[in-house]
Design brief:
- The structure is a single chain.
- By secondary structure, this protein is mainly α.
- It has a single domain, classed as Winged helix-like DNA-binding domain superfamily/Winged helix DNA-binding domain (Arc Repressor Mutant, subunit A, Orthogonal Bundle), CATH 1.10.10.10.
- It contains six helices and two strands; from the N terminus they run H-H-H-E-E-H-H-H.
- A two-stranded antiparallel ribbon has the order 1-2.
- A hairpin with a 5-residue loop joins strand 1 and strand 2.
- Helix 1 crosses helix 4.
- The longest helix has 17 residues.
- The protein is elongated, with a radius of gyration of 17 Å.
- The chain starts with a helix and ends in a 7-residue tail after the last helix.
Amino acid sequence: MNLSKTSKYVIRILCYMASNDAQMYTAKHLVETLALSDKFLRKLMTQLSKAQLIRSIQGRDGGYVFARPIHQIFLMDIVRAVEDPQKYTECALGFKECSDTSPCPIHHMWKEARKPMLKMLTKTSLQDIVERGFDGSY
């Protein structure tokens, strides 16, 4: 089970910012450092701002800062900001009716396979990532 391209990028952005979470980051700096298009970055930052994970400071000396402490921002919060995490829990074969009581052929195997990923997304904060030694370099 892979994260979407969009989720991968927003996690990369926020992990980078978390490596020095007190700093304000300009769009220009993030675009250059993370090799993203300006338009794509700004779209993602707008979504993260709407989800109240970051704040956008307007003006000449503006940029982006975290809206709350990084120990309170979990990977699933980041994923939810840009996509519906339902895709990580829906039927692997695409059936609309797939549950424990009406399973598809691989329902129970898929349910077990996705548990570690969902646990990691819901239990891992940006602070955890920084504490594991991520220094912001890519």
